[in-house]
Amino acid sequence: MQGFMMYMSGNSIQIYSLFMLYMLFKNVIGGVMGVNKTFQPLAAPIHAPGSKGTPQPTQSLLPQKAMFVICQLLLVGVGFYKANSMGLLPSREDFSSKWDSMQVVRIL
Length: 108
Hints:
By secondary structure, the chain is mostly helical. The chain contains 5 helices and 2 strands. The chain has helices at about 1-10, 15-35, 35-40, 60-85, 95-100; strands at about 45, 55. Strand 1 and strand 2 (about 55) form a beta hairpin. The chain is elongated, with a radius of gyration of 24 Å.
């Protein structure tokens, strides 16, 4: 969904595009920081029908959590690509060319 929103927001620097970029990075950081809270309902002990109240051990959710974090990192890549296509990252030579040609003027 986030990738579709980045596609639809366009490449021009407008408040809508900047807000979508901000929300992308904010949601990714929040998702990575709250990965345990996201998977908490799935990690609850399972009560088997005939077990008389003793909970069964749960399976490890480490592969699912790792895939969740990888998907969040892919969204970070989409965000950096979008920021670069909008011209917000200093990756082009026009960022440094105006500073290279400046001369130092001494005032007595």
